Amino acid sequence: MTVPENGDREMTPIEVFHRCIEILKANHFCALATSLEAKSRVRAMEYAIDDSGIIYMLTEGGRKVRDILLNPNVSFAVWETGESGKADDGGTGLRGLTITARAEVVDPGDSGRFGNYYGEYLRHIGREAPAIDMLPRTVKLIRVIPDVMELFDPSLQVEGYSPKQVWRR
Fold first, then answer.
1. Any idea of the CA torsion for 48, 72, 130, 28, to the nearest 10 degrees?
2. pTM of this prediction?
3. Cα 95 to Cα 154: distance, rounded to the nearest angstrom
4. Fold observed for domain 25-84+99-148
5. 80 within 8 A of 155, measured Cβ to Cβ
6. Domain layout of the chain by residue ranges
7. Which of 61, 34, 54 is nearest to 140 (CA)?
8. What's the pLDDT tens digit per position in 20-59?
9. What's the Cα-to-Cα distance from 147 to each of 74, 91, 99, rounded to whole Å?
């Protein structure tokens, strides 16, 4: 364990990982950023996450799929506010994380992999969805594997930790 410049302690990598997973499981919407040819684009996406930290999203294609196929490096942000919905509820109202990751697009034509990942997605969002053969042919699944998760949570200071923590694969 190292001590950051501000004197607050760093958490162990496994502690940071579990805090990140807690935030990711408590939320289901994110901002996904892709980039291609020096042009970036961010869009809101619904996601599901499994216990190992793999993130799944369904999409009907478009620019994000093209971008990921040509450049699998993505960023992903999730944030939440305190119970009041304002960042001023005791100074701990905003927490979130930014993820740097590699993404892959899984096509329904790859029925084995798509079926497995689609099943994971459904299991983790907790709702019924159409059978694979009932999905529009344009639907793809994006699978995101985090490389770095940067957590920001001011409430960690109460526990003696730095509000910014970083997990690396």
1. 20
2. 0.81
3. 7
4. Pnp Oxidase; Chain A (2.30.110)
5. no
6. 25-84+99-148
7. 61
8. 999 999 998 999 999 998 899 999 999 989 889 999 998 8
9. 10, 29, 7
